[in-house]
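Ex. 9. Protein: PDGLE domain-containing protein.
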Amino acid sequence: MHVPDGFFDVPVSAGAGVVAAAGVAVCLRRARRELDDRTAPMAGLVAAFIFAVQMLNFPVAAGTSGHLLGGALAAVLVGPATAVLCVAVVLLVQGFFFADGGLTALGVNISLMAIVTAVVGWTVFRLVSRTAPRSRTAVVVGSFLAALVSVPAAALAFTVLFWLGGTAPIEVSSVAAAMGGVHVLIGLGEGLITALTVSSVLAVRPDLVYGARGLRAPLVLRTADGEIPVDNPAPSPAPKLGIRPVLVGGGLVALLLAGVVSFYASSAPDGLNKVAADKGFNANEKPHDLENGPLAGYGVSGVENERLSGGLAGIAGVGITVLAGGAIFFTVRRRRRDEAAA
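Predicted structure tokens for PDGLE domain-containing protein:
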């Protein structure tokens, strides 16, 4: 759902930019409470993983594909505020290095793909967590539902923005029906990817899943007068696997996905591009200002072999995302430590 330049008029693009900037600023402040010694290194990995998986378009209907948005996944793994930052970093890297997503539409993309998906996804996840018994199964099911709902929610938000300032005179109900229908299907794929990823991390280091913290129920002393909660239950056993193997393993998976598996992704247009083509407003798309960049189009300029070019570009993208995200997350983490020390 990377919105290109030209789909929205200046007032909506500028307004979305203000919303995106304000949302990121708020999340930078709130992320200080989420980025601890476990979350900070995980956040960089999550951003890189989202970048890699977004290269893997999967077919959802005849002539249409979809890809991960990642807001709900990141919210469950590292917290909602940090999730917005993760996806925002990915979108910045894609926009400036790979010419994916318009620069004037950057505010729209951050608002839709980072803020809406993370907020909606986390809200759904928390609703499931509070109503279902606290267990790993509930976390996985909540992750699936959070991701499933977050995608059509972003599509609905796109429709509202198009109604406010779309550059094509198209009936908004027609856009809403088309966007909603295809993005429900994409949401199913997003839900499966999110549930699989969360369950994989839960299997090796459940304490690294932000949404799973506190799963262990407090000890209860049963007496003749009823149940009495014990304030200080015995500590959970130390995890058998350190955080470094998890980070290295996750990084290798991201590199493999971006550098090798991405070559086999669906070449069909994604949901937004297909709707734009069917409804005719793709004619308003403007060329990307950085379309001649060395990594534009997810290929390395000057490398003739298509598979090698795409693989190198994917690996470069993972590296850039890790460096950019890591710098931001550890800076926020350091400020938290400085404030605590003061």
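Check your answer against this statement. The mean pLDDT is 91.
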